């Protein structure tokens, strides 16, 4: 927050709050999955994580407008 200028403090605070809410929601969802049974919950959590990772990767590639390059 200190790095954001005064006129960008509002959007920066919303972004930070959104990340905190998403993190808490993720912990709650995976906790609920594990509570159904450790093995089944871990398997379901892995599937959900892999699917979300694939979606996030596809969206970031699509929204960036250019392919990623290796250095």
Structure description:
The structure is a single chain. Helices cover 76% and strands 0% of the residues. The chain has one domain. The protein starts with 8 loop residues before the first helix and ends in a 7-residue tail after the last helix. The model has no long low-confidence stretch (mean pLDDT 78). The protein is mainly α and 71 residues long.
What's the average pLDDT? 78
Pick out the low-confidence regions.
none
- Terminus-to-terminus distance: 31 Å
Number of strands: 0
Estimate what percentage of residues fall within beta strands. Answer: under 5%
What is the helical fraction, as a range of percent? over 70%
Evaluate the radius of gyration.
17 Å
- The chain-level structural class is mainly alpha
* Main sheet attributes: strand count, strand direction, barrel closure: none
Supply the number of helical segments: 2
Characteristic terms for this protein:
single chain; 71 residues; mainly alpha; 76% helix; 0% strand
């Amino acid at each position: 927050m200190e790095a954001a200028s005064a006129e960008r403090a509002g959007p920066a605070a919303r972004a930070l709050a959104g990340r905190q809410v998403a993190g808490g929601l993720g912990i709650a969802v995976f906790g609920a999955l594990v509570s159904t049974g450790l093995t089944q919950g871990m398997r379901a959590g892995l599937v959900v994580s892999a699917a979300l990772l694939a979606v996030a990767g596809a969206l970031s590639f699509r929204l960036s407008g250019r392919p990623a390059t290796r250095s």
